[in-house]
Specification:
By secondary structure, the protein is of the alpha+beta class. The protein is about 35% helix and about 20% strand. Strand 7 and strand 8 form a beta hairpin.
């Protein structure tokens, strides 16, 4: 795998340098469009509808067409002015119970590899998430787009999963379900019996993509028989970014605990309210009652940590 992003996780006053890798990949066989007559590759040209000339990608801007028929053209400079998290920083907004995140919000997954001579800070964050059984809500900027994301642990590796914003999930409103009759007790009993007879532990390796297997077999047989349908492609190259550094771990943690204690005593919630707003909105829609309880216990926990830190 090749890293697609380098930066650091901002965990209080602790920096955790990381490299980011795409955690998933598509194994679907990709096809190109060709001329049926001679097998020639079909290519697309960017033609301007106004002047009729071919336009290079570097000369292309983005436009929005309003419902009234007016067009707004935006350049790269315009997009750079928009609010976004630091391009090479993943700030932790808060830690929430993992079960409060609805799986429908999960989008793209990324593996995080420690990018430091000493992975101590990485291991600390990983073990803390496992110990507390919580997920960190973070801001993650990739390809000039800032997303809300969940930072969790999978097989001893930190994983970031970008989250959909609440308004990106459609409301499931089906009138046909409003007057649907309830299932009879004997029907539920029989259905439950069927579920139990078909129950087992989940093992994803037991399932295969039969369509892709048969498609690959068809292609291999065609290649083995020869013919005029062989196409050669060239590999692409990627570049890596710069390195990062980790601060003194114990001192940074001590200052983070003291800062959290002071914020709790003064009644303040966070030093970055603008970034935290989306996280509150997402969690509140999922389980407001649990969320409120968690928030009420936060000051007490923070005071205990503060007292412990002063005693040390």
């Amino acid at each position: 795998m090749r890293s697609i992003w380098k930066g650091s996780i901002a965990f209080g006053l602790v920096n955790v340098p990381v490299k980011v890798y795409s955690a998933t990949e598509q194994h679907d066989i990709r096809f190109h469009q060709v001329h049926a007559k001679d097998g020639g590759r079909i290519k697309y040209d960017r033609i301007c509808q106004e002047c009729g000339k071919s336009v290079q990608f570097a000369d292309i801007d983005k436009a929005y067409d309003s419902p009234d028929g007016e067009r707004v053209i935006l350049t790269d400079d315009d997009f750079d002015k928009l609010p976004a998290a630091e391009k090479h920083e993943i700030p932790v907004l808060e830690f929430v119970p993992t079960e409060q995140i609805d799986p429908i919000l999960y989008d793209k997954s990324y593996f995080l590899e420690p990018d430091s001579a000493s992975p101590k800070a990485y291991v600390l964050l990983r073990e803390t998430l496992e110990e507390t059984e919580r997920t960190a809500l973070v801001h993650f900027t990739l390809r000039q787009k800032t997303r809300l994301a969940a930072l969790r642990v999978r097989d001893d590796v930190l994983v970031i999963q970008t989250l959909l914003w609440p308004d990106e999930v459609r409301a499931a409103e089906f009138p046909s379900l409003e007057d649907a009759p309830s299932a009879r007790p004997q029907e539920v009993k029989m259905a439950t019996s069927l579920v139990e007879s078909m129950s087992s532990e989940f093992d994803p390796t037991e399932y295969t993509d039969d369509y892709q297997i048969e498609l690959r077999k068809l292609i291999d047989e065609t290649l083995a028989n020869g013919g005029e349908k062989v196409v050669h492609t060239e590999a692409e190259s990627d570049d890596d970014g710069e390195d990062a550094e980790v601060v003194d771990l114990v001192a940074a943690l001590q200052r983070s605990v003291e800062a959290a204690g002071k914020n709790a005593k003064s009644g303040s919630t966070t030093t970055t309210p603008a970034k935290k707003a989306p996280a509150k909105k997402a969690a509140a829609k999922k389980a407001p009652a649990k969320k409120a309880a968690a928030k009420k216990s936060a000051p007490a926990k923070a005071d205990a940590k503060d007292a412990e830190a002063k005693g040390a």
